[in-house]
Design a protein that fits this description.
L-amino peptidase D-ALA esterase/amidase, 5-stranded mixed beta sheet, 16 strands, about 25% helix, Hydrolase
Length: about 350
């Protein structure tokens, strides 16, 4: 049964670890966390970065021209560049499980990661360390919370509270599943200040939203001029299809459209927008599957496969962005969509 989650891709697991002080105020107290996407053995990985200010680890390793083909886990974390220390804890847990590239004397786990800039929400020294990563990966499971959790604990989406969201879909023609998970911490808005509704009309209908009262829209628009300096949305998209490392990177590139469709502006010089892609390889496209009325007949079967998976990845990522924002609860006094625009749920 579908959970509407990245873990609908068989073998993918997700875990969080965060700390949020109940009495935290903006700039004071804990409001930060980490999320780990644990991949099954043999998973191919790739990455695409569109922002001008990324904070990342092991992304060069994912270039299709390089030697290491498989990824053990991906870290999404708060704490800016300091938060990359959480990957050490993920590696320690994986080493205990004997996961990683086999070497003389042991294994070397492959854990790429990326960060959001959320330091102004909590205290500047309140950021994830290796223990956050260890606790997050050891708790990884098929079911996990969304909203103000894990890497989304201190996230903002423009003037609203951001958060951790997920979505999935299955492509019935080929039996392939695609999923996404995202920590929405965007400088741009996810909501149109003129209407109080998401930018994408499809998402308005899918989530059952309606135009909120003018007074609520006016209050939201007044906050729009006070956006803080937070930035960077980071995500993982995953599929169970068998694709090459180069094909996996093409999926990551296509998935970035999901951010551009739901966040305005996205991919700015002060964002570090980064999308990882994982392919477990569990599902082969059916024999003879190839171009159809949905794709030009000049495409090869592999190109056609990447075209439909990439489009699905972008759609899942767009939905996951809205899931994260709608599920977010207030932290450090940052207003939420549900709290500021309740009329949208009437």
């Amino acid at each position: 049964m579908s959970r509407g989650s990245i873990t609908d891709v068989a073998g993918i697991r997700v875990g969080h670890h965060h700390r949020i002080d109940d009495d935290a105020t903006l700039g004071s107290g804990w409001a930060c966390g980490s999320t780990v996407v644990l991949a099954p053995e043999g998973t191919v990985g790739a990455v695409d970065c569109r922002g001008g200010a990324p904070g990342s680890r092991e992304t060069d390793l994912l270039d299709p021209s390089n030697s290491v083909r498989h990824v053990d886990a991906v870290l999404l974390t708060g704490g800016s560049a300091y938060g990359l220390a959480a990957a050490d804890g993920v590696m320690r847990w994986l080493e205990e499980q004997h996961r990683g590239v086999a070497m003389d004397g042991g294994v070397v786990p492959i854990v790429p990661g990326a960060v959001i800039f959320d330091l102004p929400v909590g205290g500047w020294g309140c950021r994830p360390d290796a223990d956050f990563g260890y606790q997050a990966v050891r708790s990884a499971s098929e079911t996990f919370a969304v909203g103000s959790v894990g890497a989304g604990a201190g996230a903002r989406a423009g003037v609203l509270k951001g958060g951790l969201g997920t979505a999935s879909m299955t492509l019935p023609d080929i039996g392939v599943t695609v999923g996404a998970i995202v920590a929405v911490n965007s400088g741009g808005n996810v909501v149109d200040p003129a209407t109080g509704l998401p930018w994408m009309a499809d998402l308005i209908a899918e989530f059952g939203l309606t135009a909120p009262p003018p007074a609520e829209v006016a209050e939201f628009a007044s906050l729009d001029k006070k956006s803080g300096p937070l930035n960077t949305t980071i995500a993982v998209v995953a599929t169970d299809a068998a694709v090459s490392p180069a094909g996996c990177r093409r999926i990551a590139i296509a998935a970035q459209d999901g951010l551009a469709h739901t966040i305005r502006p996205a991919h700015t010089p002060v964002d570090g927008d980064t999308v990882f892609a994982l392919a477990t390889g569990a599902v082969q496209a059916p024999a003879g599957w190839g171009p159809s009325e949905k794709v030009p007949t000049a495409m090869s079967p592999e190109t056609a496969l990447l075209t439909v998976i990439g489009a699905a990845a972008a759609e899942c990522l767009a939905r996951a962005v809205l899931v994260g924002v709608l599920a977010a609860t207030s932290v450090a006094g940052i207003p939420t969509y549900r709290g500021l625009l309740p009329g949208a749920f009437a």
